[in-house]
Amino acid sequence: MLEGNRVSRISVRGFAVASATAVTTVGAVVGVASGSTAQPSTNEAEATASDATLLADIPAGQQAQVQTATLTQQAETQAIAADNAAQKSAEEAARKKAAEDAVAKQKAAADAKEKAEQEAKEREEAKKVASRSATRDASSFATQASYSTSQIQAMARQMVPAGQFQCFSNIVDHESSWNYRATNASSGAYGLFQALPASKYSSAGADWQTNPATQIKWGLNYMDSRYGSPCEAWTFWQANHWY
Q1: Bridge partners for 183 per DSSP
Q2: Greatest Cα pair distance in the chain
Q3: Do residues 63 and 136 share a domain?
Q4: d(CA 31, CA 27)
Q5: Per the structure, how many domains does the chain have?
Q6: Tens-place pLDDT, residues 197-227
Q7: d(CA 106, CA 114)
């Protein structure tokens, strides 16, 4: 019966004894390391004495087992905490990388779009330049005392890029019916394009009043500079009935 009571006492209070002993031992070591000479209080002394008595009641072999179990539990707790910290760090790194990848992807898409738009613009400009270089200049036509509608249209076909001629012709049809001397009595607008004031034509040549080729040159330059092309000018004209 005595031995049975002894085992029961150990099993109930074993871990408490080991923990108290570990705390007491750590405290003593810290005190020595820091040079502290403070003496334990009466309560602390009594608790230590009581714990020492309980630990003394445990057989030596079981004391080692209890202490080993406590240290093992502490190590496991620390390992779990370390694993959790590592997992959290990995998740944070993954989120950061995903965000950086998304930004890089958006930038790459924006750069690609900008590059494509620039290339398209350059191709269009090159196309316009090529078309214009293939057309005749106003000064290459011989001057005449007068010009028929068919002659004026023939000039325009040689001066206006082929893909733009129909739009160009539509505007001239509506503005003057290809009459290079057409004059608006109320406003003073003049010529194939009803320029207002009429003197605007002079930027294309001094003979603007009598030479339809000079007027065509001015009209084409106006449409290109203001709208981008005769067809874009025609689109505007259809919506507004002026250009």
Answers
A1: 190
A2: 145
A3: no
A4: 6
A5: 2
A6: 999 999 999 999 999 999 999 999 999 999 9
A7: 12
User: Which residues form the domain of 17?
Assistant: 2-31+40-75
The reply to whether 93 falls in a domain is: no
Distance CA 156, CA 175 (A): 15
Spatial contact of 66 and 17, defined as CB atoms under 8 Å apart:
yes
Instruction: Give the model confidence (pLDDT) of 113-146 as tens digits.
Output: 999 898 888 877 766 655 554 457 777 888 899 9
- Is position 120 within any domain? no
Kindly report the length of the chain: 243
Neighbouring residues of 12: CB distance < 8 A, sequence distance ≥ 6: none
Please give the C-alpha separations between residue 52 and each of 10, 19, 32, 56, 73, in angstroms, as whole numbers: 13, 11, 20, 6, 22
Among residues 215, 169, 179, the alpha carbon closest in space to that of 195 is found at 215
DSSP string, 70-138: HHHHHHHHHHHHHHHHHHHHHHHHHHHHHHHHHHHHHHHHHHHHHHHHHHHHHHHHHHHHHHHHTSPPG
The single-letter DSSP state of residue 58 is S
